[in-house]
Design goal:
Layout (H helix, E strand, L loop, with lengths): L1 E3 L13 H11 L1 E7 L6 H10 L3 E5 L11 H16 L7 E10 L10 H18 L4 E6 L2 H10 L5 E4 L5 H9 L2 E5 L9 H9 L5 E3 L21 H12 L3 H15 L7
Parallel strand pairs: 1-2, 2-3, 3-4, 4-5, 5-6, 6-7, 7-8
Helix pairs in contact: 8-9
């Protein structure tokens, strides 16, 4: 069975059919889905998915692309919500990480002042939150690997996942030393994605997790269609071929890696 370590199951693209999408994925062999929040407006949606389906777990955080529409008090709201969940016996058991958080230096307007500094502030404060509650983090890392790593060295968290990893082998090594797994998904299925495929082939198997980032980053065979978590087994097949190993062994290893780096999955 497979674990989708990063899927925006509550996204509008699914037309309110998130439960059906999850059911389809389960039928395809996906045993668990991690659903990260992106903004205060979807905190409750991802929590509800965790309550509605045994195979859904969630993370709470403010995505860097949503920082422009977020306010300083949203950080306190996030902290308060996490504190309440961690103190509870039921819903909080499905909270496995702080995320999706990080830095995005790909979108031009996010690289300009004051948004660049605001992004970094929100990232730092959410790392502190993860540290304070001993939670791992789900990281958004787009053209920002070195700055992300700089703050991870200063604010030590309980590991996590560098989602949609597309850095260098040297940067990958640093993430791994800091207790992180590296997420690979649809981008890896394109034969022209030479660097990503090289990393997916050569990195230690115990450092890799699989993801869809659905509805985003569709694999090569979906063309212009949006992605779904049911695509994960086929994405896994591509990785198994790249690493010259059996699909069953690849599924078992990557799923075990997710459970290792997100230990609260064992509580839910």
């Amino acid at each position: 069975m497979w674990i989708d370590s990063h899927c925006h199951l509550d996204a509008n693209e699914f037309g309110g059919q998130s439960l059906s999408v999850a059911e389809e994925a389960a039928g395809a062999g996906v045993s668990a889905i991690i659903v990260p929040a992106v903004h205060k407006t979807n905190f409750e949606a991802v929590i509800t998915l965790g309550q509605q389906r045994e195979d859904c777990f969630y993370a709470l955080g403010i995505h860097p692309m949503y920082v422009p529409t977020s306010k300083e008090e949203d950080l306190q709201l996030l902290r308060d919500r996490v504190a309440g969940l961690m103190a509870g016996a039921d819903a909080g058991s499905k909270l496995v990480a702080i995320g999706e958080i990080g830095l995005d230096y790909f979108v031009p307007e996010l690289t300009q002042s004051p948004l660049r500094e605001k992004q970094e502030h929100f990232y730092i404060e959410q790392l502190k939150l993860a540290r304070d509650f001993d939670l791992p983090v789900l990281l958004h890392v787009r053209r920002s690997q070195d700055i992300i790593l700089k703050h991870l060295r200063h604010i030590q968290v309980n590991g996590g996942i560098a989602h949609a990893f597309n850095g260098s082998a040297q940067q990958a090594e640093v993430f791994i030393k800091l207790g992180f797994k590296l997420g690979f998904g649809g981008a890896m299925t394109f034969t022209r994605a030479l660097q990503i495929r090289r990393l997916a082939s050569d990195l230690p198997l115990d450092s890799i997790v699989l993801e869809t980032d659905a509805p985003d980053i569709p694999p090569a065979w979906l063309d212009e269609e949006f992605n779904t978590p049911a695509q994960l087994p086929e994405i896994g097949r591509v990785l198994a071929e790249l690493r010259n190993m059996s699909i069953a062994d690849l599924a078992a290893a990557t799923s075990a890696n997710v459970r290792t780096v997100l230990p609260r999955m064992l509580i839910g």
